[in-house]
Request: fold
Amino acid sequence: MSESVTIGKKSREDQTAGEHGKCMLNRRQFLMYSGATAATASTVSLTLFPGTAKAAQAKARVVGYPRKLVGKLSEMKDNVPAVINYPDDGKNSMATMVKTGVKCGGGVGAQRDLVAFSALCTHQGGPLLGRYRVVDEHRIMGSCPLHLSTYDVTRHGIIISGQAYESLPQVLLELDGDDIYAVGMMGLIYGRNQNLMSDTTES
Ligand code: FES
Reply:
């Protein structure tokens, strides 16, 4: 995983984020907010009921996001979206991956322009597949067919307009050579009460 280049007290990514607006996170912040971990799962020891007769050591399993191969960089064309599923193949896991041709918050690749977002509107789950648009220098997801929300994919999916009040969940991507991996998620997928679960509930 690449690290920021440090210049004085500020990294280059921090400086760029400042130039593009305060809503763009650098990669370290992105990882922190997404809760993504390199390991799929790890086991930790803890003491239950400390200081009592019932005190006992127990093992707890901490599960992180899966590292999932979702595509090849060489097969991605600018502004031609691909459909992926993450973090699993269950309900509401569809996401749109797109190489925008412009630098994006959380983007990977030489231009930091490859990003992915949930394909469900955060308002009431309207379908956003096939609704990626280029308007001048802007890269937009939407409008949602139900109530017209639109999202800015260059700035972590923040709302541009419409009824939604939460950003579009962003899939954290990494590159390993030509392979594109999804490794985490920032934001809650519509219709789930947590992202990492096998059975999902429509709200
Ligand atoms: S469901 Fe998308 S704006 Fe309402």
Observations:
- The chain has a mean pLDDT of 82.
